[in-house]
Amino acid sequence: MVKFYENYFSYDFAWPAVTLAYFLRYPNPYSSHVLASDTLSRHLDPTTGKLTTVRLLLKRGKLPAAVARFLPKIKESYILESSEVDIRNQTMVTETRNLDWEGVISVVENQVYTPSYSSHNNSSDGEKTDVKLTVKISSRVGSNAREKVADAASSGGLWASWTTGSIQKSIEVIGMKRMREGLGRSKEGMKVVLEGLREKGLLAAMQERRERRLADKEEGVQSKWSSIWRGATGMNEGDKLRKDSDE
């Protein structure tokens, strides 16, 4: 079972500003669920001029009670974000996917950022950026959930008519609904960052980010997930990747 969602929207800002804001978008007033972000790798191809970045995000979230009874308790999730900025052709392609819950729900989001073109003369509108969003949501409930469904069915009641397929469909529908709600918050958050860049400038925006990251470290958020990631990948202190854009 797979669900797809596609959407088109624009920002009233030039492409260079939007691509910069993408990497500076956390934190913002609409992203309180994003607990931490870190740059894992960054590479600039000297031949093509393309900048490739991979980041790890830690987000807060939980499943609705309607399906949570069949699944493990979920409070946080890790998101892998990859992006490629093609400066020469003025195109940025991004992808985010969840690293947790994959046996429950998989959400893969792709975005393409390009300068907006006038429909009248096919010329670039330097003050706008178009975004094409594509989301793929699928659920693959495992054997543990199937056993719980069987137990619930044998006892009768509300869940007696539920099947694994029913749970999968419900999870996908709920995931799609939450994704649409999150899209609105995400766009508003980007606008806040873009307005901040325009009003305060890059240096002030970077200073605010630095202060926020220091506050997060004091609260222990950064050390919590970073130690988990490095332990899983076998990284040691000498292997720590530079975080130039996020420092």
TrEMBL record:
Region entry Disordered, spans: 225-247
Record-annotated membrane-spanning stretches: none
Domain spans labelled PRELI/MSF1: 2-202
Coiled-coil segments on the chain, per record: none
One Pfam family linked to the record: PRELI
Biased composition (Basic and acidic residues): 237-247
Signal peptide, first to last residue: none
GO cellular component: mitochondrial intermembrane space
Name used for this protein in its record: MSF1-domain-containing protein
Organism this protein belongs to: Terfezia boudieri ATCC MYA-4762
UniProt lineage: Eukaryota, Fungi, Dikarya, Ascomycota, Pezizomycotina
